[in-house]
Specification:
The complex is a heterodimer. By secondary structure, chain A is of the alpha+beta class. Chain A contains 7 helices and 25 strands. Chain B has 36 helices and 9 strands. Classes of the chains: A alpha+beta, B mainly alpha.
């Protein structure tokens, strides 16, 4: 009882302070040679207002003073990496550190710039399928007014509505661009204008037109998110008036304050409510499948409303793919149901699967493997209920009847002397 | 006074017979216990593990549940309608025994019931053989046949303790059915015929080999009709047996409508029709003149043959009758299976028999057998025709398939016993020594045993000759000839008694050396010569049972499916039931393709672990690499453009594993899993495979990126690999492994090159 009380208390405390769904402890690594933190005060102010606990670590002088892990334990929930001038961050921080951190569920915000892109971050981003332009090459656009390397782009160009869906506004961007692979886990957020290209002073082109990206996100299979921004000036105070709202939403997405959904479990049963355990499914049974979804709105779990949740009944291949309909709703859960449907006329071990993966939203997979048995020997319709069988039934009974009639006649007929037929002939 | 002596002798005979039969029972059971004494009370080989698992299911559930058992732990994800696709006779019998023992206060473990099932039924087989042979000749021959049957290795090979297979009960039922059939055919008794049908039903419920009875009995009837030996007794026996037997056999779910739909059963139906026609013909023959009858006969024969043959073709063509099964074709053309159905050819017990096996399994019976058949020809009674037909058919079948040696063995015993008993009738008959009145009394029934036999059969040619010689000699120099005769008799019977002794010796030796190994546990010797046991299979299966998730799916070649199901209790993809060739081909394809393709194929089937058998360390030649070509062939049958057998041979066309192996071979999953870390056992660079006598180097094996080693047994015989979970960043696991390798080697790429990417749309 006491334990329960403490858990409740803990929940309340967490609820009061924490906005992201997974944690607020944040480590920020920066290079004081090229980054002056005072230029980002507005950004940090918004973060701290949302109760993030940020630890600032400059990597140049205090090389080994930060730790991401204490033994096996992850010390931070989020990691913000500012551009660094040196190629390495520290001796104990390389690409595998970043990969492990992400695999453990940590969210990473990487900010690179034409002047600061270290190997660990670059290789990490490459593993995700993001290929930022190398040092000393930057995005330019000669079709724009003003300076060719300051690009103004509208938020109506944002590629993912789950990341940013506010009314359009102008963003000011100056920095690198990246090529993106075709991985399904990538979430492209902002593409470069069609008239821009990325070049260095030797004239090598890295990206051309809208094949280049300014900001890209990535959500790994464990729902950890990474965002890459190719410009540190994008976050600075002097452009925060125009970029601020977008940046706020971007970080909200990155650190899982928004676009986070979860399933609160699924259930399936016979359409009359009897569960599988009481009565295992057999072919052509009528069943109901239901799954509930919640969405994190920044402070609470609320019902997640959508119309594209699908359910699959698979045995290697899907036998059914049904779009679920919204059914009942509670304070924090929206349930989706298949309604009554008939299992296929095929026995086997089937997977009851809801695999909801939408770009920008957390992935939800609910899987249940259940056997659907064949009809037992006494579950087929009886022969006399099948009209076609009457022919055979009547023939059986007529043969029985006629045979007994024959026996009656034969036994009551007078015996005539019949000499052994075989004897005579052999 | 004389009558009293006679009854006393009769009682003595009964007593002797009982003692002999009890001893035969004892011999039959005890000679099958080597495996239990040497190893332990354990189920053997592969199929018995399934039967054991099914029996356990039956004793822990109701019969209704067993009959409708849907097994979701095999053939994942298809599942198997096990209740409807097995022969329940064996399991039901042991469940009845188990319940029976419990009810009389003997709670025996079901495993022990199963282990000792075969030896117990071997005793009954001997008894049935005794009855059968008694119908063919007499009780003497019967006792000999029973003795042979009890210890002949050809039968022991499938019925040692622990060999809990369908054949264990099927041979008993085979002999019982035949015994009742012979009785019914001789007497025309409906009772015996019904018994034959009931045992036939029992046989159908126990073994797929029932088709042999289904065809042999009609063939016997057909030959008798051709020989002009049709009789109303035959009619009543056959029609009763056929109708009851067929209707009864259709009650087994697995058989269902086969008796009226499959070509394998058409002979029985055809003969059933023929018997009616012949019966009708016989009746007409008795009522019309022979001249007219000839016309009727010829006309009706032509009509019947034309209608029958064309009808059979027509309904087969239209699909009402299932065409002959592949196993049937492979009986006639030994190459058929190799070309068309690799899955059948891949089973070692479907291979043609090697000639020495006949002697190995039957010893001196194999040359007494043709002598017995010859003697049966001399004395061609209706029941002898049966034995002859059986012998001829089964001799052929046993030559085609090793496993059918089992069905040949009983008739070898019967024929050999017939021959030997004929011989002993003459040469072991010393009754004249007692008779003081001379040779004239030789044939008088002074010996009760001879009397018993003399009543039953007309004197055969041999004994007639002997008696003629005896009578002629008595007149001249009776004492000298009598002495010579005794010497001859002693010599001949002594020789054969010596053969018998040798036979017993041989049987015991063969049983103890060749047929008593459980094959789950392998006997071996330590370097110092002391016996050791290689227990890798059980070690690995228990590892699976203890360390993996209860619902883990294990992919392995089908040979090990039943054992994994029985010992490790984990879900398998394919097993020895081999009902779905495509599913087996999927596993074959996974083993034969490169690891990345295999990985995706196996993941699509929710596989968690892959199990391979590797004999290279120990020199165990029955390992997966030696079976690998069958996997290739079976999957090539389904995906001919993806898997090509030729690509698995070296450039010179050899099946090699060393440096000269083809790249397809080296990249195949089976190769990689088998040899993964193998050179580490040696110097770390190259290992020596003791099965194939080839050197395997580290470079041949390459890296294993998609699987990780989970378990390797003590002697490396069983290796279990776990499928790595997919990379959380969505990369392919080969790239992950490459990156990790580079990281650990400290490779730094300073130069940033523009990646080659597809256009992003």
């Amino acid at each position: 009882m006491l334990k329960l009380f403490f858990i409740n208390l803990l929940c309340i405390v967490l609820w009061a302070h924490a906005l992201p769904v997974h944690g607020v402890k944040t480590l920020l690594l920066y290079d004081s040679k090229i980054t002056d933190l005072n230029e980002y005060s507005k950004l940090f102010a918004t973060l701290q207002k949302r109760s993030y606990k940020i630890e600032f670590v400059a990597i140049d002088d205090s090389n080994d003073q930060f730790k991401l892990y204490d033994g096996e334990k992850r010390l931070y929930d989020n990691l913000i990496l500012f551009p660094t001038k040196s190629r390495t961050i520290s001796s104990n921080f390389d690409v595998s550190t970043l990969l492990n951190f992400s695999e453990d569920g940590g969210d990473v915000l990487t900010i690179t710039s034409p002047g600061g892109l270290n190997d660990a971050v670059r290789i990490y981003l490459n593993q995700l399928g993001i290929y930022p332009s190398p040092r000393d090459s930057k995005l330019v656009d000669y079709f724009q007014k003003g300076a060719s390397d300051v690009i103004s782009i509208s938020t109506s160009e944002v590629l993912n509505r789950n990341v940013f869906s506010e009314p359009s506004m102008e963003l000011v961007y100056s920095g690198s661009s990246a090529l993106l692979g075709n991985g399904e886990l990538l979430v492209p957020i902002l593409a470069a204008p069609r008239t821009s290209f990325n070049t260095n002073n030797k004239g090598d082109r890295w990206t051309v037109g809208s094949q280049g990206y300014l900001i890209a996100g990535f959500q790994s299979l464990n729902n950890a998110r990474t965002v890459w921004i190719g410009s540190d000036s994008f976050l600075k105070d002097d452009v925060f008036n125009s970029n601020g709202l977008f940046i706020e939403d971007l970080i909200k997405w990155n650190f899982r304050e928004k676009a986070v959904i979860k399933s609160v479990g699924f259930s399936h049963s016979h359409s009359n409510g009897i569960s599988y355990d009481e009565h295992p499914y057999k072919v052509r049974d009528s069943i109901v499948y239901e799954v509930g979804f919640s969405e994190w709105n920044g402070s609470d779990w609320v019902p997640f409303i959508t119309d594209d949740v699908q359910f699959e009944l698979r045995m290697i291949d899907p036998y059914y793919r049904l779009t679920l309909n919204a059914s009942r709703q509670t304070k924090d859960i929206q349930y989706y149901t298949t309604g009554e449907f008939k299992l296929p006329d095929h026995h086997g071990v089937f997977t009851f699967l809801t695999d909801y993966r939408r770009s920008g939203l957390s992935y939800v997979t609910e899987k249940d493997v259940k056997a659907i048995r064949h009809l037992a020997n006494d579950e087929y319709p009886r022969s006399y209920k099948i009209t076609n069988a009457w022919v055979y039934l009547s023939s059986i009974f007529s043969v029985i009847f006629l045979f007994s009639m024959f026996l009656l006649v034969y036994m009551n007929a007078p015996i005539t002397e019949n000499v052994g037929v075989e004897k005579k002939n052999n | 006074m004389k009558a009293e002596v006679h009854t006393a002798l009769c009682w003595a005979r009964v007593l002797f017979k009982t003692i002999i039969i009890i001893s035969i029972f004892g011999a039959a059971i005890s000679s099958r216990l080597f495996s239990v004494i040497r190893f332990e009370s354990i189920i053997h080989e592969f199929d018995p593990w399934f039967n054991f698992r099914a029996t356990k299911y039956l004793v822990s559930h109701s019969f209704y549940e067993f009959l409708n058992w849907f097994d979701d732990r095999t053939w994942y994800p298809l599942g198997r309608v096990t209740g409807g696709t097995l022969y329940p006779g064996l399991m039901t019998t042991s469940a009845v025994i188990w319940h029976g023992l419990r009810n009389i206060g003997l709670p025996v473990d079901i495993r022990n019931v199963c282990v000792l099932f075969a030896p117990a039924f071997a005793g009954f087989t001997a008894l049935a053989t005794y009855e059968f042979t008694r119908e063919i000749k007499d009780a003497n021959a019967g006792l000999l046949a029973a003795g042979f049957m009890a210890i002949v290795p050809g039968y022991i090979s499938r019925s040692v303790a622990g060999s809990y297979d369908n054949e264990a009960i099927a041979i008993t039922l085979l002999m019982l059915t035949f015994m009742f059939w012979i009785k019914a055919m001789k007497t025309g008794s409906i009772l015996h015929s019904t018994f034959a049908a009931l045992f036939y039903f029992y046989m159908v419920s126990a073994w797929g080999g029932y088709v042999f009875i289904t065809n042999l009995i009609p063939l016997h009837v057909f030959i008798l009709i051709l020989m002009g030996r049709y009789h109303s007794r035959l009619y009543s026996a056959y029609t009763t047996w056929y109708t009851i037997g067929t209707i009864a056999s259709m009650q087994i779910p697995f058989v269902g409508f086969l008796p009226i739909r499959s070509n394998d059963h058409m002979a029985a139906l055809g003969v059933f029709g023929l018997v009616q026609l012949v019966g009708l013909g016989n009746y007409i023959k008795g009522n019309v003149s022979s001249k007219r009858f000839k016309v009727v006969l010829i006309l009706s024969l032509v009509v019947i043959i034309v209608v029958g043959v064309s009808g059979l073709f027509a309904i087969t063509f239209l699909g009402y009758i299932a065409p002959w099964t592949g196993r049937f074709y492979s009986l006639w053309d030994t190459n058929y299976a190799k070309i068309h159905i690799p899955i059948i050819a891949s089973v070692s017990e479907h291979q043609p028999t090697a000639w020495p096996a006949f002697f190995f399994d039957n010893q001196f019976l194999i040359w007494l057998f043709p002598a017995g058949v010859f003697l049966l020809f001399l004395d061609l009674k209706d029941e002898h025709v049966f034995v002859i037909t059986y012998s001829v058919l089964c001799s052929y079948f046993a030559g085609v398939m090793v496993r059918l040696m089992l069905t040949l063995t009983p008739i070898i015993c019967v024929s050999a016993a017939y021959a030997l008993s004929k011989l002993f009738d003459v040469y072991l008959d010393f009754s004249e020594l007692w008779s003081t009145t001379g040779a004239a009394d030789v044939l008088t029934p002074s010996d009760p045993q001879a009397a018993g036999t003399a009543e039953k059969r007309p004197p055969s040619k041999i004994s007639a000759n002997v008696s003629a010689a005896a009578t002629s000699s008595s007149s001249s120099s009776s004492s000298r000839n009598g002495f010579l005769m005794v010497i001859t008799k002693l010599l001949v019977s002594g020789t054969f008694l010596f053969y018998l002794w040798l036979f017993v010796y041989h049987c015991t030796w063969v049983t103890s050396t060749a047929y008593s190994s459980p094959s789950v546990v392998l006997p071996s010797r330590n370097p110092d010569g002391s016996p050791a046991v290689i227990d890798d299979f059980r070690e690995a299966y228990y590892w699976l049972r203890m360390n993996t998730d209860e619902d883990a799916k294990i992919a392995s070649w089908w040979d090990y499916g039943y054992q994994i199901g029985g010992m490790a209790d984990r879900t398998t993809l394919v097993d020895n039931n081999t009902w779905n060739n495509t599913h087996i081909a999927i596993v074959g394809k996974a083993m034969a393709t490169s690891q990345d393709k295999a990985y995706h194929l196996l993941r699509a089937h929710d596989v968690d672990y892959v199990l391979v058998i590797f004999g290279g360390v120990l020199g165990f030649s029955g390992d997966d690499l030696n079976k690998f070509l069958w996997m290739v062939r079976i999957s090539e049958g389904i995906w001919p453009d993806e898997i090509k057998e030729r690509e698995y041979f070296s450039a010179a066309g050899d099946y090699r594993m060393d440096a000269s192996a083809s790249s397809t071979m080296k990249n195949s999953l089976m190769y990689k899993l088998s040899y993964y870390r193998f050179p580490e056992l040696f110097d770390g660079q190259q290992g020596f495979d003791r099965v194939r006598s080839q050197t395997i180097t580290v470079d041949d094996i390459g890296t294993l990126d998609y699987f990780e080693e989970a378990f390797t047994s003590e002697n490396w015989m069983v290796r279990i690999f776990k499928l790595k979970s997919p990379d959380h960043l969505g990369r392919n696991l080969h790239d992950v492994a490459k990156l990790n390798m580079e990281q650990s080697l400290g490779v730094k790429k300073r130069l940033v090159k523009k990646p080659v990417l597809d256009l992003r749309v």
